[in-house]
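Thread: Newbie trying to understand structure tokens

Hi all, I'm a second-year student working on a class project, and my supervisor (Dr. K.) asked me to get a predicted structure for one chain before our next meeting. I've only ever worked with sequences, so writing a 3D structure as a token string is new to me. If someone could post the tokens and maybe explain what I'm looking at, I'd be very grateful. Here's the chain:
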Amino acid sequence: MNEKKKDNFLGRFTKWFGKTSDTNLLLTITIVVFFLMYIGAIIFQGQGFLKPQTFFNILNANAALIITSVGLSIVMICGGIDISVGGVVALVSMSCAVYLDFHEGNVFGAILIALLIGLAFGLIQGLLVAYLDIQPFIVTLAGMFFARGMTTIVHTAPFNVENEAFKALKDTRIIVPGFGSVNKLGKYVNAYVEIGVIVAILVVIIFFVILRWTKLGRSFYAVGGNSQSALMLGINVKRTKFLSHLLCGILAGVAGFVYFMHVGSGSASHASGMEMNAIASSIIGGTMLTGGVGNILGTFFGVLSLSTIQNIVSSAGLDQAWWTGITIAAMLCLFLVIQSVVIAKKKKLLTK
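---
Reply by user tm_fold:
Sure, no problem. This is what the structure looks like when written as tokens:
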């Protein structure tokens, strides 16, 4: 009887495995791995990970990375890459800081500056990649160097912003009811998130809907999967590639302001390595470098997984930067192997 039940379970699993799309399959793996990782952190690293505020702090610290990773995922699904996003975030942060403190600017003007910088990078890089057919890696590499150089030209020394209206916005906390905890003094402390987390979640929801249920989203997958087939289906391949880079640039601008709200300062060293963390988060989230496969929800969990493993390494007392780098590298390789094995197994199953 047990053997029969086992055979039925394996049959149902094989049927589900074969019918599920590559995108949903990799999304499922990412979510399962994240929860296993977080449960492992609770078991082995103490009750600190059990407090809801610990999870909310992960979101607070990584809101900008979530937005940046969403933009990277769109470009990667479309078969491209963008390594300029970290430089754009730094440039936005410095430009907004200088505008607010040295030019007596206001918050709305700073938001407009952030959007315009992101729009400019997305527009120019999208035109060069899509309509001049230049390799996206080369174009965005130039964009990264340009953004980093411009950040230093805008202002050299790091400084904290003293604009009162901005500081009030930066210090705003949104209470999450029912998730507070009692501290060591016996006092109840409310759980909270920063404004940037709300922006990041809205971005995830909006682009999840766009990719899943709109013509533009289907075009991104089609072009990334096979641009020649997409062209034969009547999809404007060049325009689709252009729009992917344009959206990525705009989201980098939004991420820049969210990052700025979190750190409250301008510095040429801000967002160092963010582009690599965004690429890693997208890959961990199930977005394939070959294009055509990916999910925004998976990218969200990819960022959480990356941050969780960083927190685990830090909690274990391995505070040196190289330990974090080594762990991320191992995690990235593991997910790439899992992706390759799962996709290969599925193709083998479908050919039987």
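A couple of things are worth pointing out once you decode it. The mean pLDDT is 88. Residues 321-350 form the longest helix (30 residues). Feel free to ask follow-ups in this thread.
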